[in-house]
Amino acid sequence: MKQINNLDNILEKFFQKNKNKNNYFLIQNFIRFGVSRATAFRKIKQLKAGCLQRKVGSGRVPIIATSKNINKIIRNFKNKSGCSQRNFGKNLNCTQSYISKILKRKTNIRAFKKEKRPFRSAQQLKDYRPKCRKIYEKYKNFDFLMDDESYFTLSNTTLSGNNIYYAAKKVECNNTVRFKTVKKYEQKLLVSICISPKGISPIYIHHSKQAVDAKTYISILKETLLPLIAQYYKNNSEFVFWPDKASAHYAKQVLEFLKKRKVKFIEKSLNPSCLPEARPIENFWGDLKRLVYANNWSANNLDQLEKRIKKCYSEMNNENYLKQIKNLPSKLNKIAKYGV
User: Fold this and answer.
1) Cα–Cα distance between 316 and 320 in angstroms, integer?
2) Cα-flanking dihedrals φ and ψ of residue 71, to 5°?
3) Per residue in 85-134, pLDDT tens?
4) Which architecture characterizes domain 123-338 according to CATH?
5) Domain ranges of the chain
6) How far apart are CA 335 and CA 27, in angstroms?
7) Which residues, including other chains, have CB under 8 Å from residue 276's CB and lie 6 or more apart?
8) What is the C-alpha to C-alpha distance for residues 75 and 114, in angstroms, rounded to an integer?
């Protein structure tokens, strides 16, 4: 656009100096400036009429992008999902790309990917604000220590990028690429960490096939929470432990274990259910799994998987998670005021 405006300025200046010359002279010189013969004729005609700038409203009258149709498009797409630009284009006798162009140029409506969030009952939604307010008021000057665990299988074909393959013809593609083998009970590892504003615990990998019970959770805390406290909070009691609300995390043996070691923790009655917005550690697992299973990597056995997890964990940049948990009090205050 700037180049066109600069060329118009040059042509206009040349015309003003030589406006008494005949058309043949003007056309030949306009062609030397890089415009076609037809364009030269048009430019000279515009200059003799006044100037090169197009008058507002002098263009073609819109047939499809009329104000009436634009309002129809806005009503059909604004704050709605499941809308088809192609089908709506058929109603207006135009293409999908033209509907997309109208949305982009004539409106402020943009397409966004849906965000995932857990199902929440009416009672849970009602409890979020008062519970977050109580936690904020009671522990706003404390460092939050948060733990979580996740399962890692030998392969993960459900990750984005691992669930598709490229081929000219399906039958010509290798079966190892074309098919994903599914085992009814695939081997897996339980991986756990604990995070605080000052640092992250060593990663703990558990080989048990059983679900997490009180005994297993205590062994996890010994390998994650306690080393984190010893490293960063040995002479500082201004921290509070915020476990997940799983039943095993609040078992009698677990609570006795924490009280015996004088570890403050969020009471179960205060702990909100299904609130990943207040648990930044939830984002950690997605990032780690993307590294572990990058390029459709899969393990042959659990030992190989464990080595891969530890290697990828050591290469991760954890600054973002530390920043998120440091800002957790302000996040709780925001949820207490406005909800989720």
Assistant:
1) 10
2) -65, -35
3) 999 999 999 999 999 999 999 999 988 888 777 888 888 888 899 999 99
4) 2-Layer Sandwich (3.30)
5) 2-49, 67-106, 123-338
6) 70
7) 117, 118, 282
8) 20
